[in-house]
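Form P-L/3: holo structure prediction, ligand NAP.
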Amino acid sequence: MERVALVTGANRGIGFEVCRQLGRRGYVVVLGSRDRERGEVAAARLRGEGLDVVGCQLDVADAASVESAVERMRREHGRLYAVVNNAAILYDTWAQARSADLDEVQRALDTNLFGAWRVTQALLPLLLRSPHPRVVNVSSEGGSLASMNGGTPAYSVSKAALNALTRLLAGELRGRRVLVNAVCPGWVATDMGGAGGRPISDGAAGIVWAVELPDDGPTSGFFCDGRAIAW
Ligand code: NAP
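OUTPUT (holo model):
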């Protein structure tokens, strides 16, 4: 049976590399991109590497876009093995909680929290048709309450909230065979991470690990490189 996986925000960075690694493992990959053209170019590049990848216009902050992407998945695949909620914005190193622009915080929440929430809700019927569904929320240690100590307020609050959503969904879906986990890819050299981070392939590998968990694998966890980290 074909294993279909959807990755959001996958036209570049870690999401793109997750598509490549899943494709190499035999998944049919739906590469989500808010810009249709950039998504098609990225998907064509991976098809050029011999992988089964299709582009799909998907802006996680836009309910109509999510709805039409899910409708297309329903028509073309009928079920979904895994969703990787990877799309994110606004690593606001310039801001502080005490003076943050709350419109900016709202924008971060719209994509980083509500985007993942909206996509997962919409895809749930398709996920539940799969025998071993997986939801992987790409989070960050910046969202860890244990290590939070000021700075990057929009990003940190949005990732802490995404972690909370991970726990809620995992608890509610435990009886339905769905494994829901949050994964931090570590500091990775992407447009968001900047120079000096580790290779994109290393960051992506920890996310693919959470997609590939066995049925008796963990749920409701927060991981980096396959190891549990503090909430
Ligand atoms: P990136 O290079 O900035 O790429 C972000 C991707 O998300 C882009 O494809 C972007 O699309 C997409 N995106 C943004 N808003 C979107 C929306 N509304 N709908 C759909 N796609 C949207 O970031 P990255 O470094 O690869 O990060 C990937 C994930 O890892 C994020 O969740 C990030 O928080 C997490 N993370 C990264 C690091 C790091 O060091 N890089 C560390 C910890 C966690 P456009 O091209 O259209 O902008």
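COMMENT: The beta strands are 4-7, 28-33, 53-57, 82-85, 134-138, 179-183, 222-224, 227-228.
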